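hey all, quick one before standup. I had two proteins in the batch that finished overnight and I want to keep them in one place so we stop losing track of which output belongs to which input. First protein below, input sequence then structure tokens straight from the run.
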Amino acid sequence: MTMTRREFTGTSLVAAGAAALPAGGAAASTRETRPSPGADGASAGRAARAGRLLILGGTGFIGPHMVRHALARGHEVTLFNRGRSNPGLFPGVETLIGDRDGALDALRGKEWDYVIDNSGYVPRLVRDSANLLRDAVGRYLFTSTGSVYDFDQDELPEDARLLEVTDPESEDVGRYYGELKVMCEEAVQEIYGDRGTVARLHVVAGPGDPTDRFTYWPARIHRGGEVIAPGDMDNPVQFIDVRDLAEFCMHLLEEDTGGIFNVAGPTLDGTRMDEFLYGIRATVTTPVSFTWVDEDFLRNREPPARFPLWYSHRGPTRGLAQVRSHRGVAAGLRFRPLAVTARETLDWFLGEPEERRAQLRLNLDRDAQVLADWKSR
């Protein structure tokens, strides 16, 4: 059974965007994300020139990693948000309180060298803030998504076919997430021209992730026993460590680099499902084995969310995990080893309160039943 785009949007890159929302959903974490050893640029050194950075958002999942890395590089950081999510997370950082929907006055009369727009989902609101800041900032970096692409393609470089905008008047983010991001990108490029930079994020992983799409696998493998390995060994898997994302975005700003960049790892061309699972297994000491279960067998029994980061390499969504980041690598994108992301994400997750850990989508009883059915077919 082949998934349609609509069927898996809740578990793919749409969720990546939702993870950046500071208070947009019940899954959003309200606890401060603890920095991992060596994370967020702590060993990256100071920037050659300290700049003034404005982050629209900054207190969700990806924002705090960007703040910490920018501070470690010696930049002066200002946040603009509603002050509702994680207030006081950065007591030494200036926070301007407002709302992108009609309450931008706190941004007037100030200047910055760089802007990172982490909270742009509706073209009208992105256009409002981009216009207001046009003469007050040097470079505007917009965090977009790989969901702007039509996934019915074999590979997705930056010039791959984008989604067709079917309802340009709608602001329904849940239904038209990718199409709205297409229009947001267009607004930034129209207003800023060469001073605009677009980062198209893939699934973002790492400490603090409220979606558990990556976290599921280190946590499940850590539990040990017989683990369902979904689909084919060569199914493509892609994600980007949030620390690599933060460092790359800051690098683009410091180097005054414009253009559109895919931000997807964990290597230049992603990895395979077998490499992904066995790579994570190498980071734990719990006895564990994998049983490979056929794609069609699983699709006919389990919802798409059961096995996150598993995407077919056939059918109308086959391009989802075939995003190409060659342009980004040429511009300075680097990837932490899978083992580092897996181990540090697991360490963070195991340190979370029990009620948070209970939200993980583990269902060992159901796994056992699926395995029994598979073996008895």
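OK second protein, same deal, sequence then tokens:
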Amino acid sequence: MSMIGDAHIHIDYSSPKVRGRIIFGGLLPFNEVWQSGAHMATSIETNKKLMINNQILDEGKYAIFTIPSKKNWTFIINKNWQQHGKDDYNPKDDVIRFIVKPINLDNLVEELRYEVKKTENKKGEINLIWERVKISFPFTII
């Protein structure tokens, strides 16, 4: 759990490993919904409202999904956080959806990880990092 200002932000995920495989565009096809972790859908929980990409995320617990592609990723926050993988994913349950440009990394990151980092008193960023890709976006506590 990360504490930024007076907000508790927790991302719960299973962390798959690369194990010599091509992940994005291989094991995980481009342009398909991914639960952004292994097994159960990754979840994010916050006790304060957040502003993400000019959209308000109310306090609560949500699922995180992404749609990887070569040039842009779609980042999705979905109200149905108790899902196995993407089996029950329904875009009608999306509360936030936006495009983010992936950052290509020089070094291989073997194990998927998420980071919630403070950038200012009531501001931070969320990072998804795996294989040779980093997805990063800012948020503000409101």
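Flagging for whoever picks this up: The chain has one domain: 2-141. The chain has a mean pLDDT of 97.
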